[in-house]
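Here is an idea for our session: we take a single protein and study its fold together. To get us started, please write out a protein record for me. Once you have written the record down, we can walk along the chain together.
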Amino acid sequence: MDYLSDKAKGLKPYIAGIQPKESGWIKLNTNENPYPPSPRVAEALQNASIQSLRLYPDGDSAGLREAVAANVGVSAENVFAGNGSDEVLALAFQAFFSGKNNVLTPDISYGFYPVWSGMYGVGARVIPLYEDFTVRIGDYHNGNGVILANPNAPTGMALSLPEVEELVRANPCGVVMIDEAYIDFSGVASAVELVGRYSNLLVVRTFSKSHSLAGLRVGYAIGDSRLIDGLRAVKDAFHSYPLGILAQALAQAAISDAGYCAETVRRIIVTRDQTASKLRGLGWRVLPSQTNFLFVEAENAKELYEHLLAHQILVRYWDMSRINRFLRITIGTDAEMEVLIQCIEKQRKQR
């Protein structure tokens, strides 16, 4: 007997990048930070009270929200914390877009967006990126909501702050949700600067990328207090305690060390630009990246993906129209990127 609901039968789940179980891989497929978290995270873990784990955590993550608020220059009432930005985004889909039509989003972006649209009954209107993979703001007017990653993934390109503001102004009847998972690598000002002026703007961020805490699962949203209250209501109808005691404490430690975060981001940007130059030197098209990855148009992309896989190097390939000529390559350490380049050059010589 088939016990699945009609909705469950119709879902097309998100497919995450391969997570190898054995050692020896160079992992450049899920945009993780190649450097360890701040030493303050290790110190906070060492000083954590094991006895406290018998108790439930603070369901509102008050201390973490205050730390985030101090870091970005808003009030704690403007901050919501959740179990990774994926949970925060999913809750936002439920709170602001469920049952609505004409919610605007690009055709090439984070693969979870269409999954949540299907799960929560969102009538998304998918707008094709231009041939150069840029977002044109004029295509995103008068929606009942907007979902946009900035910088976009997997393309790696960002809108400027004035462009984001134009987007918010052009959609007064719906929430404009800006997913800033990669903003620290962009050189572009965060849309958080606009939150105090626009009640329909929600900015979602994560500790996974620039703070090297993908394994901790902590994300947050910043917006008008009424949007935050809406997120909290949906969260409390779903999960009262999304963030554990350790997750809250370690994330607070990470965000307190702005200097460490800035230095690891700087190192990744340097390696990113050097790697892009080398790949262009091979005659490949590399989209201008404002993230911790490169989106590379390679001859026989699928064949190259499989060649790298055979040599224990993981990158990301999608067998989808418009992007099946591309590989997305996370920026690792200098040594890892050098092995990648050598493996690519070896394959080219063998052909």
Q: What stands out?
A: The longest strand covers residues 101-106.
